[in-house]
Amino acid sequence: MPETNEKSAPALSEHQVRLTAAGQATEPGKFEILCITAGKGNGWEFPAEVLKASLSLWEGVHCFIDHAWTSRSVRDLAGQVVEPHWDPLTKGVRAVLKAFGPGGETLAAFGREVLGEDKPPKIGFSADVLFTAEGRKVTEILKVISLDLVYDPARGGAFLRALNSVVHPVKPLSAETSIFSDPNYSQPFKGAKPMTTQLNPPSEPQSPPIHASSDGEILQAGLSETPDSQQQMCAYLLETALAASRLPKPIQERLRKQFGGKVFAAADLQVALEDSRALLSELTAPHTVAGPARITAVYDERDKLQAAVDDLFDAPRETGLQSLEVPRLTGIRELYLSLTGDHDLHGGYHPDRVHLATTADFTGLVKNALNKIVSHTWEMLGRAGYDWWKYISAQEHFTSLQSITGTLIGTVGDLPVVAEGAEYTELMVGDSPETADFVKYGGYIPLTLELIDRDETRKLKAYARELGSAGLRKISSLVAAIFTANAGVGPTMADTGALFNATAVTTAGGHANLRTAALSITEWDQVCSAVYNQPMLVKNAAGYYGAGPKMAINPKFCLVPRALQNTAWQMLKGEFVREADYVYDNVLKGSAVPVTVPEWTDAADWAAVCDPAVAPAIFVGERFGILPEIYVAGDELSPAVFMNDEHRLKVRHFLAVWVNDFRPLHKSNVA
What we know:
Helices cover 29% and strands 20% of the residues. It is an alpha+beta fold.
């Protein structure tokens, strides 16, 4: 090799020094890589300035073979990142990767294959990083956990060139003869073979080519390969710049046609990209409409705290708070101490120790959550069958606790003829008033300070579920008792007759709605006929009993105990009727709905009820809601807190249940 004329060679720039160093014998197993580039990856946007600020975090980061979602194994260790630096051209973090460890040979083999292919496979590097973000835009990288060799990396990690060449020394290049003389140019790109190239051949003899490395990759420099090498590097620069530009595909294709297959300066490509962005902005600006901002949701600290308390008790959140993200409370103790500051458990409020600055109070938040549990339990038990009474009764809200008069207005039996010029006669219209009184049901469960200090949140949730269950079962038992009171004949009506009796309707107190036969298809038809033929009320007076027109309504519900459930379902839901000798189509299918009454214990009695929307008979009145109310009483002035160290969970339920009309009801007391 000719000797280098060091006296006549100009001073080498940084990139020229790097190129010269690449031609020397170096430690095997080193690669120059691109760790990460600016842009989007896995739905997150990584700005260039954020990556540039993270350079120091990449020093010493270990490389593993593929990602792992548990602790890393030393068997996957493949290398370490050193000498990270910023590359303004690719807007990415470059570094040297030293292969070592059990996975080092695998990494080196992949590197050699990737760099040796014209169309390399999608093998590269994916960074496992910890960062902060606003929306989907990364604002700061906090830690680089690892840089792993993966298939199809998310954000720009790639092999650039091998640094393990065993070569002969070559003479330095002058600044005017190197294609890397631009001080802003960083390193050769992926797929390019590192080389020194002279644009104008010097007068002295040309340096011999750089020979192959130990892994078989050819690193060659010569005048004959100069155009191909430059074109290859420019092609990679073009594709990288277009991928990061986020320009529409038509504009990218235009730039690809303009620069593709040519050798160009990086500055020219950058100017073309900026011109394209400016043109796109001018074309799309008239179509951009900026309207006034709209507020879709506003949350305060009370909303956040209520959402956290709801989550603590596994209660459904309030409408509009479902998407609110709040930290999860550890238990009832944390909630109590944070809101009251009562670390000594005296039952008081200490504002100087309160951790949460909010107007919300402990008892109010707990009450809201427990009421939601009651509501949820009510719904779940209803699905299990305890809301059967809703289908056969009419529910009504009242604004006071006054006694209820459930008046049944009579009907006009017939319209008499009115002669021309004659006076109209008074029509006979009467009523049958039924009365009912509200009854208050309730009790309390102690929420002791010991329970709070022991953090027994599960027990408190169980209390609320039991209160909800008790409220629903109470209404169920009250409605069921209408059919079983007084040995199965029900309460006494205003007309002096028992709700269910076999007395003819033409006599005072006669209801003709009681039979004794067992449930069967034939008997169900007989009961339906009796209900259908019930005369409507005209007036409760002699001569008018049973004088009204037919009600002409069939029962819709067949009430049975659990022992008769299968019989009722086969009769009213089954496809066929099975007799001893033959089977035939069930004409009663869908004619009525079987309903199981949980509280009925007699295995043979059953009843029929009309649709309350057409002929209401049973009424359920409520004063403050059909669900029981929960109150939490407890502060430092509360007697229970002072005397018993307990907050009290009180449940209250005002209900009135009565029968307004006997005609839509029928009972069979089977002997």
